[in-house]
Amino acid sequence: MTVTPEGSVSLGRQMLNKVPEITVFFWIIKVLATTVGETAADFLNTNLGLGLSTTSYIMSALLIAALVVQFATKRYIPWIYWLAVVLISVVGTLITDNLTDNLGVSLPTTTTVFAILLTITFVVWFAMERTLSIHTIITSRREGFYWLAILFTFALGTAAGDLVSERFDLGYLNAAIIFGAAIGVIAILHYVLKVNAVLTFWLAYILTRPFGASIGDYLSQAKVDGGLGLGTIATSAIFLSVIIVVVAYLTVTRKDATPPATMS
Predict the structure, then answer these.
(1) Residue 21 and residue 257 in contact, taking contact as beta carbons nearer than 8 Å
(2) Which string of DSSP letters, residue by residue, matches 43-90?
(3) C-alpha–C-alpha distance, residues 87 and 151, integer Å
(4) 29 and 82 Cβ atoms separated by less than 8 Å
(5) From its phi and psi, is residue 59 left (phi > 0), alpha (psi between -120 and 50) or beta?
(6) Spatial separation of the C-alpha atoms in residues 216 and 153, rounded to whole Å
(7) CA distance between the termini of the chain
(8) Which of 12, 23, 119, 133 reaches 20 to 30 Å from 199, CA-CA?
(9) CA separation (Å) from 8 to 76, 101, 128, 131, 149?
(10) Are strands 2-3 and 9-10 parallel, antiparallel or unpaired?
């Protein structure tokens, strides 16, 4: 067992912080990853004709492999971490799509269920670790809670985004504007009104999922469906290319890594 910086006892290896610092690069890649999660899932499912089930099996296997590598590391490595985020974005989208398209679960129900599961994850995480801060993901147990929360935020964001853009018939662009405005409000709460940083981070993290997905749908979907008609291939390629460039830059500069002196 290890004693955490907050003074509580936690199981698992103690490592350097396993996730990046919250910089502008973090939010840029996060939004791009959510967009890729939406468009890549549509590409594999529809364009390649793999179907939801086959696509879900393939992407879930890739995600598990990426998380095995991520958990095996003892510090934050940009390309490994962001590969896992992109894959978990795709899988989170597929989970919601399977529930709604294959099992017929309504979007209000999936949104509610994933909100409850995410809340339970946070409650158990805090009860065991006494913190939800991502600045101290320094044990395997905390990392496990972190990735479980990330999965539920993507699934919840997908359901909420589809609910607003499709069920409420607001369209992809209007949905992106609504979620972007909500993120702006959270930024004001944090930077101006000094609302708790952990709370505002997770709220923003949840909302960037439907925000990015709405952008992806708006760019990729046909014009008759309210999009720009770029297609899933072009949209995925553009956003993946930007992610690769930014991650390469962070790998070289280490601008988003937590300094060891801060952790100690």
Answers:
(1) yes
(2) IIIIIS--HHHHHHHHHHHHHHHHHHHHHH-SS--HHHHHHHHHHHHH
(3) 10
(4) yes
(5) alpha
(6) 17
(7) 17
(8) 12
(9) 23, 44, 9, 9, 21
(10) antiparallel
